[in-house]
Design brief:
The chain contains 11 helices and 14 strands. Helices cover about 35% and strands about 25% of the residues. It has 2 domains: about 110 residues, Aminopeptidase, CATH 3.40.630.30; about 140 residues, Gcn5-related N-acetyltransferase (GNAT) (Aminopeptidase), CATH 3.40.630.30. By secondary structure, the protein is an alpha+beta fold. Helix 7 crosses helix 10 and helix 8 packs antiparallel against helix 9.
Length: about 290
């Protein structure tokens, strides 16, 4: 088997699973708070963002891509020196997924930095989501109670033998959407869940697969949910799924990261209705003209 090689900058290569043994340990050591910074995430969304990889002279990796016709780069592991950073800003339109601890250094070097609000990750208390206690969760709790009273239901770990059931949920979800959304990434995530070390749960209503959740450990205290899909027409289903999954996560996960709202009003309202305890801020940086 030919080993995967990441070329030296300015050469790039497409993202392949062969890069996992190289990048996954670095992401793991990073213990990131930003949801994009896992190998599974960048691999599954490589088509959406046209991700490609290169190895910088300082032995850190740069991930480049294209959003809405504009080229960008990301530096998950460290900022390079001023000269190399200047080369990157000259080669690409902007820097994406800038963590908060890079901001002051970038400003010091003279780059413009702005909050990327549409891509802030939402953080929730695992304990709060598992109990839904208190007035602020009253509506969610009522929906869960309705669901458990109205429907015969079951829940199981999303193991290999249940991937087919999860795929049937995904197809039902896709049939009810106006556009493809994240269907391609979600399908591949299920098909390669073991290879990418993703885990989750699947939920049944009246004996039929109705919803699933799939994610991974982001850091020692945070579990990130990459995908959550459910069939339509079952009142309280997703509220039940949210509470159920939070309740079975190990207590070491203090937080659940449910990723970003992408600037969509409906999605923002939904995420805010679950009462986040915080957000992971991300920034965009560009050249000052």
């Amino acid at each position: 088997m030919t080993s995967f090689t990441i070329p030296l900058y300015p050469d790039f290569t497409a993202l392949e699973t062969g890069a996992r043994p190289i990048l996954h340990p670095r992401f793991w050591a990073l213990r990131p708070s930003i949801s994009e910074f896992t190998f599974a995430n960048i691999y599954l969304f490589r088509g959406v963002h046209a991700y490609k990889l290169s190895l910088l002279p300082d032995n850190n990796h740069v991930i480049a891509g294209i959003d809405e016709g504009k080229s960008f780069f990301m530096l998950p592991f460290a900022l390079p020196g001023e000269g190399l950073l200047k080369e990157l800003f000259n080669a690409f339109s902007f820097m994406k997924c800038v963590p908060e601890h890079y901001v002051e250094a970038l400003k010091k070097y003279g780059y413009s930095v702005a909050e990327d609000r549409a891509n802030f990750d939402y953080l929730y208390s695992r304990e709060e989501l598992s109990s839904l206690s208190g007035r602020k969760f009253h509506k969610k709790k009522n929906l869960v109670n309705f669901f458990t009273w109205r429907y015969e239901h079951g829940e199981e770990p999303l193991t290999d033998e249940r991937i087919g059931d999860a795929l049937s949920v995904l197809e039902a979800w896709r049939a009810g959407q106006d556009g493809p959304g994240d269907y391609v990434a979600a399908k591949e995530a299920l098909e390669r869940s073991e290879e990418l070390q993703l885990c989750g749960g699947i939920y049944y209503v009246d004996g039929k697969p109705a919803a699933y959740i799939l994610g991974e450990e982001l850091n020692s205290e945070t579990f990130v949910i990459h995908f959550e899909k459910g069939v339509s027409g079952v009142k309280g289903l997703l509220q039940f799924v949210n509470q159920s999954f939070a309740s079975i996560l190990p207590p070491r996960y203090r937080l659940i990261n449910r990723e970003q709202d992408l600037g969509e009003d409906g999605l923002r309202h939904s995420k805010e209705s679950w009462m986040p305890v915080g957000q992971v801020k991300k920034y965009r940086a560009g050249k000052v003209l």
